[in-house]
Amino acid sequence: MIQMILIAGAMTNFRSRLFGFGAVLIASTIAHAADEPASSNPRPADPGSSLERTCFQTHANWAPWMQSRSDVAICYGINRNLPARIKQWKDQGYITHFMTGVSWGVYQDYLYGRFDGINHVDEAQKERDGKTISHGGDVYYMSPGERFGEFLCKGVKQAIDAGADAIHLEEPEFWVRAGYSEGFKREWKAYYREDWIPPHSSPDAQYRASKLKYYLYRRALKQVFDFVKAENAKTGKHIKCYVPTHSLINYASWKIVSPESSLIRVGADGFIAQVWTGTARTPNVYRGAIKERTFETAFFEYGAMMNVVQASGGTVWFLNDPIEDNPDHSWEDYRVNWESTLTASLLWPQVWRFEVMPWPERIFHGRYPKIDKANRKPGERVEREPMPRAYGSELMTVITALNDMNQKEISWDCGTRGIGVIVSDTMMFQRGDPTPSDEHLGSFYGLALPLFKRGIPVEPVQLENLPHAGRQDSNRILLATYEGMKPPSPEVHEALAARVREGTVLVFVDDDKDPYHGVSEWWNDRQKGMNYKYPREHLFEKLGLDKNAPEGTYKIGKGALIYKKESPAATTYRPQGADAIVDLVRNACATAGLEYRETNALVLRRGPYVIGAGLDESIDAPVKTIKGRFVDLFAASLPIVDSVSFGPGSRRFLIDLDRLPKKDPRVIASSCKTLDAKATAEGAFTFYAEGPSEVEAVLRIFLKAKPAEVRIDGKALEASAYDWDGATETLRLRFMNSASGRRVEIR
């Protein structure tokens, strides 16, 4: 077994932190043969694995208890044993990718001049008081100079030579509170052709500092993307570059600047949307109440990343994490929040690729408090426990189902669809001193939450992507504000105005009081003929209106503008503030000829799968209930349920048995990978099963008749390990998983 030693340090809430340098998980050498005897069952081919449907990341060697059987294993970190790790995972039948951090890592060779003979320590990100922002010791967050991208290319080349099939460059992050290092000052002078100005000295300086931070990481990543493309041209390979990154909404909330939507246009092939409990439980404000709204926040975070690739092209994977970086929560807290984020991710049917977990080491072998921190008494002893058996089975059942999410039949039961809220990367530019925008990102949530809480699956729409013809979203109504963000170019107004003239109804809510309206930007650049006090004025003129048009509704071509002079953030702090936004949207629906509908639940069907959530803080209406015959995938025992309610706070992931063909036997749900399923001439049903060696496999199988016997690897299974449900003609079967695979025969 792998032995893990947790070295205490300064923990931070980021995706790779448990294996970073504030807290390091050290894995010992694994003796594979000692863990599990070899199997005589040859592993059948998985015809769907080439689609790369699911993945996970790890810095550890392969081990039987990590045999989740996703399509892709992402080997994390550059070190001496990287080639051996990649080979191990390849030998087990995984497609292998490589991942490394962009903004921090074991980069001492670069820092101290061993890479190019130049000391680069002054490129470490620094705060106003001179404190270096560190991941622990001299693992610094970098303010990337021109040579930093070249240094990253050297490490990427090692991964390519070791056999990596794709490259992941994670978390290009520049802290808003940074911008005071000598390296950043040099970059300021080169970029702006003037001496550095302290970012905290004015809104203009803060905004310009963030623009530069955005540019620096885009430049560094473009160097790597270009390098990989050049390597592909030389070798004939087709290695792709992905950027695992938090959502724009989270980075704006956490006060971090990252290139986000611009990366597709400079060479990225796609993203992993790093959304999990740790990001999604960031509190926001609704009707004056500040609290965690994990499900709602996760929905918007996933949606923001989906919209980036939908509009710009590329591939997106949605991350799910069965725990989170904070180790003080209980397994039950992790499970409840994981189900919330997972449900939110499945409500975006355009996406069918998933990172099913980061760091299986800390999940399968982690030990966490029996009682959540919030429920412990002061001074109470913390008793930790391993992952509950039922949670392990539930987790593997869901992972198996996630491989089957590329479904063509999609149907919704929800509130009005076709409504979007405009977002921009510039949301990250207004988060620092001296006048940071609303602490809880009310400019976004003030427009989005009032609708979502009424069952309306409102979509984040990336402003930067609107000018790209042929790739826009199909929303009939768009809500927008320039409070908390700004339009990055006049071209976005050309595109937005064209959308309105073609039939979109734009609801614009802004009181013109954001101090960042006065930053030195294109809308007030008189040398380019721009003389606007607010960027809204330029938009209104492009819509054919007077720039000082009063509040009201204006018919524009086939569409319309509905203008309300109000602060979206201010509405979040008023109990009735949400109602004003809803009234505007009702009017917009009437103007657009769109039926307005509210619900207190969101239910989506993806083929035979039913995903749903009951909403709290919602409308007063009867609880939604559906009838039928369903397998509950959020229950380890895979029970059959005939009535499912979507009460406030409920999360559901089901298989509708009546949507499945009944002609032949089949595995309906399983907490293991099943392959080569077939009926034999003798009337038996056989298949190969494989999974983590320490997780119990639970399966629900459709059969034509009650089985007389079940055999595992040729040995009869005890009758207590399986039971028959005659009403649904399904068998429930239980046995311990095997990493080396088992042959199951049902007679």
Give the CATH topology of the largest domain.
Answer: TIM Barrel
Rg over CA atoms:
27 Å
Annotation, overall tally of beta strands? 37
> What is the second-level CATH architecture of the largest domain?
Alpha-Beta Barrel
Compute the separation of the termini in Å: 36 Å
Number of helices: 17
What is the subunit arrangement here?
single chain
CATH homology-level superfamily of the largest domain: Glycosidases
Low-pLDDT windows of residues: 1-34
**Lateral arrangement of strands in the main beta sheet:** 3-4-5-6-8-10-13-14
Search tags:
4 domains, 747 residues, Rossmann fold, globular, eight-stranded parallel β-barrel, TIM Barrel
List the helices and strands and how they pair.
Elements: E1 4-7, E2 24-27, H1 32-35, E3 54-58, E4 72-76, H2 82-91, E5 95-101, H3 108-111, H4 148-161, E6 166-170, E7 174-175, H5 182-192, H6 203-235, E8 240-245, H7 248-254, E9 256-257, E10 270-273, H8 277-280, E11 284-286, E12 289-291, H9 294-312, E13 315-319, H10 331-346, E14 354-358, H11 360-364, E15 367-369, E16 384-386, H12 389-402, E17 410-413, E18 419-423, H13 442-452, E19 459-462, E20 477-480, H14 490-502, E21 505-509, H15 535-542, E22 552-556, E23 559-564, H16 568-572, H17 577-592, E24 601-606, E25 609-614, E26 624-632, E27 640-646, E28 651-656, E29 666-670, E30 673-679, E31 685-690, E32 696-702, E33 710-712, E34 715-716, E35 722-725, E36 730-736, E37 742-746
Parallel strand pairs: 3-4, 3-14, 4-5, 5-6, 6-8, 8-10, 10-13, 13-14, 18-19, 18-20, 20-21, 21-23
Antiparallel strand pairs: 1-2, 7-9, 11-12, 15-16, 17-24, 22-23, 24-25, 25-28, 26-27, 26-28, 29-32, 30-31, 31-37, 32-36, 33-34, 33-37, 35-36
